[in-house]
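Hello forum,

I keep getting stuck at the same step: I have a sequence, I want structure tokens, and every attempt I make locally crashes halfway through. Rather than fight my setup again tonight, could one of you with a working pipeline run this one for me? It's a single chain of 317 residues.
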Amino acid sequence: MALSLDTLIYGAGLVLTVGALAGGGWLAASELRLRAMRRSRLATATAGAGAVAAKRPPGAAIGGQVLAGVRRLGQQSAVRDPAKLSLLRNRLMQAGFYSREAPVIYLGARAAALVLATLGVVLTLPMIAGGKGMGGLMVAFLFAGAAILGPDQVLKMRRTAREREYADGFPDLLDLLVASVEAGLSLDASVSRVTDELVRRYPNLTVHLRALTLELRAGRARKDAWQGFAERLGIEDARTLATMLRQSEEMGTSLGETLAVFSQDMRAKRMLRAEEKALALSAKLTVPLILFIFPCLLGALMLPAAARLANVFGNGH
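Reply #2:
Ran it on my machine without issues. Output:
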């Protein structure tokens, strides 16, 4: 039974090794093909790029080579479906990655993580065959889980943190918009003014406000610009505001009154969120109270009595 298990483990390692070598060969062949296609375009820029690279420190050069390798991996595994690519780009923008090459770099990072995880699993096979089966399997599962779930979890954590900032700053944004509109400024000028006021408190939110201002100045329709702003933020309050502004523009209602009503609604929602967190505090404190505070309190109350009883019974003997 042990022999068959070792044979199975070594067979799996051989299959993984052959698969890794085949994948490396395929990537090398694809890389040679891409280099052949780009050689004519890169020949003219080699001299200027070499002069710039000579001025860079060694660390920057190594980082640039790593980034170029990740980018090439992303180009090999790029999403061909335009709808999926647009969805991925939207997710990356909500997480704070605004570069046009962000989807390629993200896909390249996922591919690199899978390659490293495969090498890690192959390296743990001798540990599994050497009698440390459970530990080796746990390390292999750790590598696989980090490669499969790691990039998505990092992206999700960044999106959650930014959405929290957007939700906290949206009531302040609406209050300043209402004050600016009631002071006589237009909506576009109010957005530009509010951006200057919120840059220190909510820096990530002002990035999207600046993009909205540039789109409005470039001549994009107001409803489309605000809809794009809401999609970049990814929160329900922004989508509701974009819908409300579109309906206000189509129906000809007063913009100041509409923003004032919506601002009051946002303040009420923020107060309700604060009250919800305050009411949930007692339930969240139950586990720390039982695990940490209650044992300390029990020890402080019972130890003097225990010491006195030990002294009494000791003197009795």
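Residues 45-56 have pLDDT under 50 and may be disordered. If your local run keeps crashing, start a new thread with the error log.
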